[in-house]
Amino acid sequence: MRRLLAFLAACFLAAPAAAQLAAQPRHLAIELVAESDSPAPGGEVTLALASKPDPGWHGYWKNPGDAGIETTLAWTLPGGVTAGPLEYPVPHRLVIGGLMNYVYEGPFAQFVRLKLPAGLAPGTRLPIAVKADYLVCTNEICVPESAQLSTVLTVGDGSITPERRAQFDQWRRAMPKPLGSAATFAVEGGKMRIGVPWPADQAADGPYFYPLTDGAIAYAAPQTVGRAGDTLVIETQGGGKVPGEVEGVLALDNGRGFEVRAVPGAVPAAAAQAALDWRAVLVAFAGAVLGGLILNVMPCVFPILSLKALGLARAGGDERAARGEALAYSAGVIAVCLALGGILLGLRAGGATVGWAFQLQDPRVIFVLLLLVTAIAFNLAGLFELSAPGAVNRLAAGGKGGAFMTGALAAFVATPCTGPFMAAALGAALVLPTAAALTIFAGLGLGLALPFLAIGFVPALRRRLPKPGPWMATLRHILSVPMFLTALALAWVLGRQAGVDGLVLGLGAVLVAALALWWTGTRQAKGRGLAWAPAAAGIVLALGGMLLVERKPAAATEVAALGAKPFSEDALQSLRAGNKPVFAYFTADWCVTCKVNEKAAIETATVADAFERGGVEVLVGDWTDGDPALGRFIERHNRAGVPLYLWYAPGAAEPRVLPQVLTPAMLAELPTRTGVGG
Fold first, then answer.
1. I need a surface site. Which of 57, 198, 245, 291 has the fewest CB within 10 A?
2. pTM for this entry
3. Which CATH class is domain 183-264?
């Protein structure tokens, strides 16, 4: 009733505006697009209502919330063609005047599946028409609109053009996926509590429940989400009635959504949110400092020690200069550790599964590091001289811009290494609140910079350093060797990540940069002006090669359990053509049923022995990220989502679809029942 009254009030207020705008273009442009213009007889074809609201306007979800109406469709279809229900992408929230609205403020696409009758002759024209009635609003007014949409399909082979497939794949990513497991709900004291199955080891950032069941919850009421083992517990104010079931969509911050159907049942109590234990944070901070300190003597950090040693030697006995250089160096180290830690936390909050040193998983970063380390090696070898730009010196305290940049470089190259105490400290950082996590990343930088700080601020330690002299030039040349070895190692990593083409690009860029730096060194030796001009041009040209580097893994990673390989339709067809028995299963990290079946049945010794005796090949499709290609394959087997288990016996025309709950005995007897194995 509240939604109806709000909608009537909005329409009443909008009536004068609607009359004035009647001759104007619609505020929500809609296009009817078919995934295939030549659907096969007896098959299905997906139509998209691709919509784009005008700036400042929004359309509505199936359940519009406290105000609004859902879209209605009136179809005109050829005989025998039927249209399914309208499917909506995941919406977002918009609160206006205390009323909660579930809306789309940017481009979105709704899906409808058409079912074609069998027996249609190829070439038959199928005119499709639909009248869409919907509401479009700004924050002040609402205007009911209608759109007459049409397209013509021609019966054919169901082929889809690559461009159309890519477009529909993009739209499908916004559609909620079936959760695969039943949820439960309970109403207690006016509160609605919903228990959604969700693996305890999987992140669920920013969850929000969009209800489809009208009146199940108070739409504008805040929602709290807690954990109880493998269950997300959502609690909010009830809507005043107790429905027979509650349907809706669980949305996460990364844009993913999951269809939820909850039935009355027990909902576990969410674990109480414990107060932050600062003693644990301090222990983790101490571990990070100690880990960073030990990192200074790890082999992977040794090339950077050359830069530290030269900087300390240059400080000599000037106490003020030593302290200034130590502080600048430490600031550079800590700043980079904080920046890398912040980026890491941001990526994980966005749903990415990344860890420390994540930046080195990108071959373009390796490419840049290869150039950087090579330039440092040539500098130490005496090919050219390097001085910090004036702007950097002015920004760094005491004019120690060179020390600041050296510290930043040390942290960027050194932190991918790990040592004692680091793993536990950084692991704790990933589960702590942001402020506490950044404190631990700063502790890692502090530990890495601690030797430099100690020598800069303790005169007794500084007096033990050798006095500056001609020996420093010889030491520089000697210390260029580990830097060249580091560059060689980086070139090898680049080849592993980007293949031969990437390695050749990297070595070519190194050659260009080296020639440019040699030219700069020659001009410096002759005292010529603009000595850095050749180096600047050469480095820019070399860095341009980064744009051409692409990741090319040497080989696909195999799944360890049962010797399984990643699923693809080509791999499946190849194995079936070789008359091999195949077990294909489709899973996702967020699917509790999938994980239970994998641990309790699939990944057991009984099944492994039976499959090995029977020569069974195993393929696994990971649908965690909603891969559209896997989604289409799953749909072809009359399943809306995971889990899906298929057994392909040798010579069988179709696979056997196994139950969603598996046992080791059920899987172990598959090879023997189909006459394979010994």
1. 245
2. 0.54
3. mainly beta
